[in-house]
């Protein structure tokens, strides 16, 4: 322990390299329990902390009131919907995140969801493993849908969206539509992406990929009227946040055959309830929020988060401060 170093609390386990970096500059205490830290333990640990490294803990008024010395919160994620930005601004607490380092890894997973849903990979894997593959069955029962040269609509063509676009257009020859808050001229140039209204995107796309952050504006913004406008042959892919979608409307669209299938990495409530109707649908590929979950990328994210925390506490340049909290 070094009294000259700022006290920080790591509310999640981080790889040794990131921890070693943090320890060079900070007096670090870490949560070493299994699973997420209980809220009360977290609040108690923050009584004298100047910095917090976290991933999904809600950074809200209650937490900030219990952490009077807190100056910086660094999340090991690019999404920061767990930050109460107004509360942090009021108390002058800096918030940072980990953009860029995970873009390719998440984009790979989105392609995996598209391919799995369209070619029925998980459904047919279960079919083979359960011994149901026999000669003489009608082969059409195993047919899927082509991904190559199909049309893709990305809602939220940002950092990750662009990496998806690159794979889809240059790798699979897909035609690309997108809808954003504002146009992305570089992506239009690089990928021939066409900026369209939501209506047009939904009506034209064989695959609709949702990649917006969760904000007050995007909370449950994808709802029944959107599924109703999609092609009945289309697939819905969500790797953003579950709460951007009205999940009941998604279930209904799938159950009534209004859309062909879905690929999901995220859910309204995580972990998703084992009795959730989505889990019983063979045309839905479900993953446990693993968009960025490769060993290398999680190491890179932890190191970025550690660097962000140190830079914020030292007042150095270079931390990825979330855009709403930049001065
Ligand atoms: N499944 C997973 O494991 C992961 C999920 N994510 C999620 O992906 C999100 C996006 O990450 P990035 O691409 O780095 O963010 P980004 O900020 O680079 O891109 C987001 C895009 O969404 C657009 N957008 C925002 N609000 C919109 C609205 N109301 N309507 C239409 N478009 C809107 C923005 O214009 C921007 O182009 C994260 O915030 C996070 O929630 C990120 C990493 C891993
Ligand atoms: O970074 C994020 O926002 C995630 O969801 C996990 O990588």
From TrEMBL:
Q: Which family does it belong to?
A: Belongs to the D-isomer specific 2-hydroxyacid dehydrogenase family. GhrB subfamily.
Keyword Oxidoreductase carried by entry = yes
- Where does the source fall among the domains of life? Bacteria
- Protein name according to UniProt: Glyoxylate/hydroxypyruvate reductase B
A single Gene Ontology MF term assigned here is: NAD binding
The species this protein was found in? Paenibacillus antri
Which reactions appear under catalytic activity for this entry?
A: (R)-glycerate + NAD(+) = 3-hydroxypyruvate + NADH + H(+); glycolate + NADP(+) = glyoxylate + NADPH + H(+); (R)-glycerate + NADP(+) = 3-hydroxypyruvate + NADPH + H(+)
E.C. no: 1.1.1.79, 1.1.1.81
Ranges of residues in domain D-isomer specific 2-hydroxyacid dehydrogenase catalytic? 9-322
Cellular compartments per GO CC: cytosol
Database matches in CDD domains: GDH
Q: Which residues form the D-isomer specific 2-hydroxyacid dehydrogenase NAD-binding domain?
A: 111-291
What Pfam families does this protein's entry cite? 2-Hacid_dh, 2-Hacid_dh_C
Alphabetical list of InterPro entries matching this protein? D-isomer_2-hydroxyacid_DH, D-isomer_2_OHA_DH_cat_dom, D-isomer_DH_CS1, D-isomer_DH_NAD-bd, NAD(P)-bd_dom_sf
Q: What class of enzyme is it?
A: oxidoreductase
Q: Which UniProt keywords apply?
A: Oxidoreductase
